[in-house]
Amino acid sequence: MFEKFEPLIDLAGRALLAILFIPAGYSKIGGYEGTQGYMEAMGVPGMLLPLVILLELGGGLLLLVGFQTRLIALALGGFTFIASFIFHLQPDDQMQMIMFMKNIAVTGGLLLLVGKGASAYSVDAALKSRKAVTA
Hints:
With about 140 residues, this protein is an all-alpha fold. The protein contains 6 helices and no strands. The chain is about 80% helix and about 0% strand.
């Protein structure tokens, strides 16, 4: 029943995951010093912030369009999983634990993309079909 809608469902799922990362990465540019200070206060070297911005903003955009979907989903999933433990695993703080569980669930969604890849409405699919035509 859902098979004929799979490309649209896939696109919607990628878009919903991407809107978590794109604004997060973009906001870190404007709040660079504050974000860097927060990272350092949590024991993460502030010099990693450009990589975080690149992964969140760039990876989010790549996920949205479906380019290198499996690789990008793996990178974002690993990042999200690790960040969950560093920044949100605070059992005495209910809000932080909600954020922790949300991030674990997002990691699960990203792992599904690692396993499945992007469907028809993606750059990956366009490149695959183009390669098949020229072969």
